[in-house]
Design goal:
Length: 546
């Protein structure tokens, strides 16, 4: 029997219409360095219609790609709705990539238009001559357009956002699209080979947004004020923009003001209730809050993901600032929400903490399994360690441009995450490492993440990044690179002794280097490739304990 239910497509334009009407008075607040700018969701709806009209006039048709080169701000939000709403594909370019990668990505995606923040023009100008498919650049904010026009050449027409939208109709006849068509496009920040494209569908973004709103997700509601620190150019800002329109939660956007001081000011000034960012942002914020008492009482929780959240960070936020940190895991390929660490009913104390340290529990939309080295599925017993594989309606089944899913990343309809860990019977994932970061020492595996977490629990340590380096006797051994807290001191021997309290002796690093800062990737994660390379090239002065 076929169902009797309406087959109403799950479209981004429906999310826009809902948010702009039912939650029309919710607001998006954008940091400016002075008084923040405010725009209601009703206004976002009107501007999205205007932008869609403007893009049509620029010749955007069908599923053409419209790229953004923008911070988290109100105009980026407008583009998030206008572009997929009209049937085109929103391509969020990562502003922190090297020019070569940006060029590759924009050309691979065949971007037709680039929407850019005026503060990012110098970066875009560097690559623009190489972006062979781009015909229009739309600049958001005040800028010297004459200079850009000159450097852009004849192929590209430059427009000012305000002028382009002025006088256009405030409504748009959003087309009835196929919910399975691409709505947005994001390239992985892959550290090897060329970046790969993941094309989200209207349907996948919708279902994912529902999960973000679920209590077991981020639990967004109409009374929330969501501080979206995680960039809109990285995995769709974890789905926060779409989920906020769905739930009616207001959005607080930091634009380019991502340092701890302005973030703390936004939390206090805008009464943020929830916030999401990678661990390094929270590490900086913790140091700031410790030194500058700030009213963070509005925050009901902060979501930390993108890299393993050190347990010490969770404890410090709770004990010193009464802020609950929730750990989550995901990838560009999973939209990105994969799991959220909310403990099950009936646990407390130490047991509750053990659940909260994990990468989290998978929701109904994400099936997970652990697979061993020869491709055998291992039991979900919380102990068997192998590669994590996932599948579900918001998990990509291939990369853009692939006819069939590549074997390296896909197996029998499952995505191979490249993450190594265990899965418990009640659905909690505990990751020990990235497959390529596991340290293989004398036939045994050492988890670099476990060592980092243990080190970051030392009061003198701000950040610690551990990588495997070649060793004649053992094949590989851990090298610990450590950033000390300002004014603090510690010796390798002391840190080694500290680790011996929680880890087996054979796992402990002999090689130690104190560094100014851990190198970070374009999305703020520890860049282990760079650390390994620096060591190999003799750039790191490592001390060796005997
Ligand atoms: P990206 O696609 O750039 O977001 O990177 C996804 C990768 O980030 C995952 O495959 C993991 O290796 C890593 N990652 C994300 N969240 C976590 C987490 N909570 N703990 C450990 N690694 C994480």
């Amino acid at each position: 029997m076929r169902s009797t239910m309406m087959d109403t497509p799950l479209l981004i334009s429906r999310l826009l219409e809902h948010g702009a009407t039912v939650h029309g008075s919710a607001e998006v607040v954008t940091a400016t360095g002075a008084e923040p700018r405010r725009m209601t969701y009703a206004q976002v709806g009107r501007d999205a219609a205007r932008l869609a009209h403007a893009l049509r006039d620029l010749g955007v048709t069908g599923d053409q790609r419209v790229a953004t080169f923008m911070w988290n701000n109100a105009e980026h939000l407008v583009a998030y709705f206008a572009v997929p709403g009209m049937g085109a594909v929103l391509h969020t370019l990562n502003i922190r990539l090297f020019p070569d990668q940006l060029t590759y990505i924009a050309n691979h995606a065949e971007d037709h238009v680039v929407l850019v923040d005026h503060t990012l023009l110098p970066l875009l100008a560097k690559v623009l001559p190489q972006l062979t498919t781009v015909r229009h650049v739309v600049v958001n904010g005040p800028a010297d357009l004459a200079a850009l026009r000159h450097s852009a050449g004849d192929r590209v027409t430059v427009h000012a956002w305000e002028e382009l939208l002025a006088g256009r109709p405030e409504t748009y006849d959003w087309p009835e699209l196929d919910e399975r068509d691409a709505a947005a496009l994001c390239y992985t920040s892959g550290t090897t080979g060329n970046p790969k494209g993941v094309a989200y569908s209207h349907r996948s973004l919708w279902l994912h947004a529902l999960q973000v709103c679920m209590p077991e997700g981020f639990g967004l509601g109409a009374t929330d004020r969501t501080l979206a620190v995680v960039p809109m150019f990285h995995a769709m800002s974890w789905g926060l923009p779409y989920a906020s329109f769905m739930a009616g939660s207001s959005l607080i956007m930091p634009d380019r003001f991502l340092q701890a001081e302005p973030l703390a000011a936004m939390i206090a000034g805008e009464r943020a209730t929830i916030a999401g960012a990678v661990p390094t942002i929270w590490t900086d914020l913790l140091t700031y809050l410790d030194a500058h008492p700030t009213d963070t009482s509005s925050l009901r929780e902060v979501i930390v993901g993108g890299s393993a959240c050190p347990p010490a960070l969770m404890h410090a936020f709770l004990e010193r600032h009464d802020i609950r940190v929730i750990h989550a895991w995901g990838m560009t390929e999973t939209s990105p929400l994969g799991s959220v660490a909310r403990p099950p009913a009936g646990v407390d104390g130490e047991q509750e903490w053990r659940y909260r340290y994990t990468q989290g529990r998978v929701p109904a939309g994400v099936a997970a399994r652990i697979v061993g080295a020869s491709g055998e599925v291992l039991p979900a017993d919380g102990a068997s360690v192998g590669e994590l594989e996932v599948r579900g309606p918001w998990v990509t089944g291939r990369y853009l441009g692939e006819e069939t899913p590549g074997e390296e990343k896909f197996r029998d309809g499952w995505l191979r995450t490249g993450d190594v860990g265990a899965l418990s019977a009640d659905g909690f994932i505990t990751l020990t490492d990235r497959a390529k970061d596991v340290i293989k020492s004398g036939g045994e595996w050492i988890s670099s993440v476990e060592l980092e977490n243990a080190l970051m629990a030392h009061p003198a340590v701000l950040e610690a990044c551990v990588v495997g380096v070649p060793d004649e006797r053992w094949g590989e051994r851990p090298l610990a690179t450590v950033v000390l807290q300002e004014g603090a001191s510690a010796t390798p021997a002391q840190l080694h002794e500290f680790l011996a309290g929680t880890l087996a002796r054979w796992q402990l690093p002999e090689r130690w280097a104190f560094i100014e800062a851990v190198p970070k990737t374009s999305v703020g994660k520890f860049d282990k490739k760079v650390v390994r390379q620096r060591y190999a090239e003799g750039d790191l002065r490592a001390e060796q304990l005997t």
